[in-house]
Amino acid sequence: MNLDILTPDKKLFEGTTDRITVPGSDGIMQILNGHAALISSLGKGDVKVNTAEGEKIFKIEGGVVEVNGNKVIVLAE
Q1: For labelling alongside 13, which of 5, 26, 31, 51 has CA 20 to 30 A away?
Q2: Burial of 8 from C-beta contacts in 10 A (0-12 / 13-18 / 19+)
Q3: Which pTM was predicted?
Q4: How many other C-beta atoms lie within 10 A of the C-beta of residue 35?
């Protein structure tokens, strides 16, 4: 699936992945290929992205995640 991680200042990540772990406001969520459509607020924590090169970790202070089809957008603070 395609993933974009954006902050107000820059794009942290743009690429493909088969698994994303995000710090939801009510707990950790994992998003896999074919996930149902979703919009959720995010809390402080790590966004973990599984890529062909290995796992990448991005620290965020909060934000929003949107899943639609196999497109995921993380708007992070």
Answers
A1: 26
A2: exposed
A3: 0.92
A4: 16
State the pLDDT at residue 20: 97
Give the Å distances, CA to CA, from 16 to 26, 45, 50.
26, 21, 9
- In the chain, where do the E strands start and end? 2-6, 11-16, 19-24, 27-32, 38-42, 45-51, 54-60, 63-68, 71-76
Which domains occur in the chain, in start order?
2-76 (2.60.15.10)
- Determine the Cα–Cα distance for residues 55 and 33; give it in Å rounded to an integer: 16
Which residue in this structure is represented by tokens 């290929």? 33
